[in-house]
Amino acid sequence: MQVSSVSLLDDGRAMAVDFDDGATMRFHAMWLRDNAQDEETRSASNGQRLVTLGDIPEATRIARSDVADGGVVVNFGPDGKTVRYDARWLRDNAYDAIPARPAGWVGEAIETWDGALAGAVPSAEFSRVSDDPAALCDWLATVRRYGFAKLTGGPLREGALLDVVALFGFVRETNYGKWFEVRTEVNPSNLAYTGLGLQAHTDNPYRDPVPTLQILYCLENSAEGGESIVVDGFRAAQRLRDEDRHGFDLLSTHCARFEYAGSAGVRLTARRPMIELAPDGELTCVRFNNRSAAAIRDVPFEHMDGYYAAYRRLSQIIDDPAMGVSFKLEPGECFIVDNTRVLHARKGYSGSGSRWLQGCYADKDGLLSTLAGLEATS
Ligand code: FE2
Description:
alpha+beta, Double-stranded beta-helix, 2 domains, seven-stranded mixed beta sheet, four-stranded antiparallel beta sheet, 9 helices, globular, binds fe (ii) ion
């Protein structure tokens, strides 16, 4: 990638850069100056910016720009600072051709799915991802792509799920502890601890911020039933959007409320939409949990009927067997879900035999950071 020519625009407030593949991208003087990669602007050791916007003259203009060694050298006024920009860097960070995207779009690293993925459940061997950085990189990339993945052949001991988290990050400790037990209890403090089936849900929508990853690790599973089911909440939201754009808009532009007060001294509440979008319509989070949904009181009276119709339809889509992928965890197996995206469910199980899972939370920023580091060195 090289720059072939450059020209000033609007009295130096911007410049147009022609690249050797025929594309032309415009860049503003202020943007270029703020993103200078020189040693005065960026720390050579950690890459962090050393200046604030207040250190950059408000009247910054491009006085002159020239093609040099395939990149661009820019001389800024009024202070005369000269900065070189690499062609590849400019192209990778260009903002002049942002595509128009429909509300509910997802990034290129994400692939939404439905029940057709059942024949190709993303999975890896615990020992391989533990020993081989390339295998770990591949596995973490599948978590990023599909929002869930299995890990098989892990150790059969309590707390082994912490070893899974240690592959990429850190446990998010909560009032449920560093990890929690998921098995039948006589007096359950949470319905997750009974043998009842559970509708697909995201965990802990009553927290803000919500735990962004969950790991469920199987130690025993000889009970009848108890299969795990995962549903892509992003695909469900997109399906609602495609069927009923108004309903999608209602769920994404009004806050629901969630709460949990099932343990002494704990009163967790959050006010967030069931379908959360970035300002440009990117799907960023789905929160869906019938057990912890609180009274919704941020939807105007005239929209509440429509809101509930959309909520009901989203629930039906999530329950549609064509949307889910199910599997039964064997002892030593676990799965990880992106709790901002993929819902998990459990089929009911009987009292004969035993089912013992341990669960914990972790966060996606650490996983994505580890993945990016592995990708940078591979
Ligand atoms: Fe759950």
